[in-house]
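queue> pop job 88
queue> type: inverse folding (structure -> sequence)
queue> payload:
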């Protein structure tokens, strides 16, 4: 059995990749409101700063900064994944065949059990991850400009004057650096 060693630095910033169990599915964007609600509920109970995020059909990338005295991103992800799945069940969207059955208790899960995480080391690392997140829909061929993908914090950054709306037309960030 593999043992994963996770970073555990309170107050740190982390980059995450979360993937659906069925990579051909598009649950995340098809039910974006349920995903947003799951995020909101978890942020209310277990605060964190959502620095950047992009949601694609079968995976998402997020950049979080945790509170100074807290390093527990695992619980937050577990609750987000559970909340999203429960919302889809409550809406009658899911049946047992639409989620993978796993574990000794036969639990249903839309997402892969694990997620990829990286602790951000400095401002340059942070900037590289934000760029990677915002450019990801272009990289995957969903759009030709970052501004054309609706499920991204890119639009928030444009509104706040952090980025220009025409950002994301240039060459993509370096391949293979961030968990894909």
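queue> result:
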């Amino acid at each position: 059995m593999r043992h994963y060693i996770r970073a555990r630095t309170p107050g740190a910033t982390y980059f995450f990749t979360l993937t659906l169990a069925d990579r051909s599915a598009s649950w995340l964007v098809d039910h974006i409101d349920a995903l947003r609600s799951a995020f909101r509920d978890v942020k209310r109970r277990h605060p964190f700063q959502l620095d950047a995020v992009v949601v694609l059909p079968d995976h998402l990338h997020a950049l979080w900064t945790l509170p100074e005295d807290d390093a527990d991103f695992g619980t937050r992800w577990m609750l987000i994944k559970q909340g999203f799945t429960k919302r889809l069940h409550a809406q009658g969207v899911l049946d047992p065949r639409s989620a993978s059955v796993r574990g000794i208790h036969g639990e249903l899960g839309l997402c892969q059990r694990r997620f990829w995480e990286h602790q951000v080391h400095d401002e340059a690392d942070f900037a590289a991850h934000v760029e990677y997140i915002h450019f990801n829909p272009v990289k995957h061929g969903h759009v030709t400009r970052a501004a054309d993908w609706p499920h991204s914090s890119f639009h928030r950054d444009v509104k706040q004057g952090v980025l220009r709306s025409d950002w994301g037309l240039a060459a993509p960030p370096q391949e293979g650096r961030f968990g894909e």
